[in-house]
Amino acid sequence: MRWIFLSPHLDDIALSCGGLVWELTQRGDQVESWTICAGNPPPGELSLYAQGHHKFWEVPAEEAVRIRIQEDRAACRLLGAEARYFSVPDAIYRKHPKTGEPMYTDREGLFGGVDPGDEPLIRRLTVEIAGSLSGDCVLVSPLTVGNHVDHQLVRLAAVGLEREIWYYADYPYTQEFAPEIPSLVPADYRPVVFPVSGEGMNAWRESISQFRSQISTFWATDDELWGDLQAHARAFGGVTLWQPEIS
C-alpha cells in the first residue's frame, strides 16, 4: 500500500505520525512525506516576527530552510519514508501578493484565520498536489488541531482535491487542544487506531530528535519530549487516523 502524508512544516509528520510511519514501512508499505511549506523566504527584509523565530531557533535566516530540510531528510531516512518538498514559504515568511506586506506578524495571526491573501495560493497548491498524485494511495492530511494557519492551508488545499482524504491529529498541539478534535473531524468519518510497538516508539522519538533547531519550541529537554510523547501515544492508543465511513 502507498501512503502520502501531507506535512505543513519540516517536522510535522515525524511529530504527529512518526511511530505509524515506522510501523508501515517495516511491514513493507511505501510511505511518502510531502512537506508543503519548505520554500525559501521571499526576497527583502523579513518581519521582526520571523527574525525572532530565527533567533529562538539559533539558526541564521539564510540557512534556516536548508538546515530544517537536512533535519527532515534525516528523520525520513530513520523512519523509512521518502521525502518530497514543495516550494511554499512558511507563514512567517509569506507576504500579501498585492501589498507585499508580511501577512502573519504575531502569534495571534499565526494561529488565527487564513489571510485572504493566501486564497490564490491554496488554489494553486490544490492544482500542484493533484498534478503530483499518481496511482492509488491513501492521502493523509492534518486535522488542524491548534489552528496553525499553515496546517489550515494544507487541509484546505487537500479538501479542494475532491477525493478521499484521511486525517491525523496535529501533535504536539493535541496536548493543549485535544478537546477540539471532535469538531474538526467530518461527521461521516470514523477513527482507526494504529498501535505502535516499543521499537516504533523509539523510532518515533529518534525521528523527532533529528529536529534540533525545533525541539526547544515545545520541550526544554529530550526527557521532557519522551515523557510527553509516551503520554500522547497512550492517550491515542498509538496513532489515530480518521477515515471516511465505508458505505
List the helices and strands and how they pair.
Layout: E1 2-7, H1 12-26, E2 30-35, H2 48-57, H3 64-79, E3 82-85, H4 107-110, H5 119-132, E4 138-142, H6 149-159, E5 166-168, H7 174-177, H8 181-184, E6 189-194, H9 198-209, H10 222-236, E7 239-244
Helix pairs in contact: 1-3, 1-9, 3-9, 5-6
User: CATH first level: which class?
Assistant: Alpha Beta
Helix content: 40-55%
Which architecture name does CATH use?
3-Layer(aba) Sandwich
**What do the pLDDT scores average to?**
95
What is the CATH topology descriptor?
Answer: Rossmann fold
Quickly count the helices: 10
Structural class: alpha/beta
* Residues in β-strands, percent: 5-15%
Secondary-structure element sequence?
Answer: EHEHHEHHEHEHHEHHE
CATH superfamily annotation: LmbE-like
According to DSSP, the number of beta strands is 7
Distance between the termini: 21 Å
What is the radius of gyration computed over CA atoms, rounded to a whole number of angstroms? Answer: 17 Å
Strand arrangement across the biggest beta sheet: 3-2-1-4-5-7-6
Number of domains: 1
| Low-pLDDT runs | none
* Biggest sheet descriptor: 7 strands, mixed
- Per the principal axes of the C-alpha atoms, what is the gross shape? globular
In short:
With 247 residues, this protein is α/β, with parallel strands linked by helices. It is built from 10 helices and 7 strands.
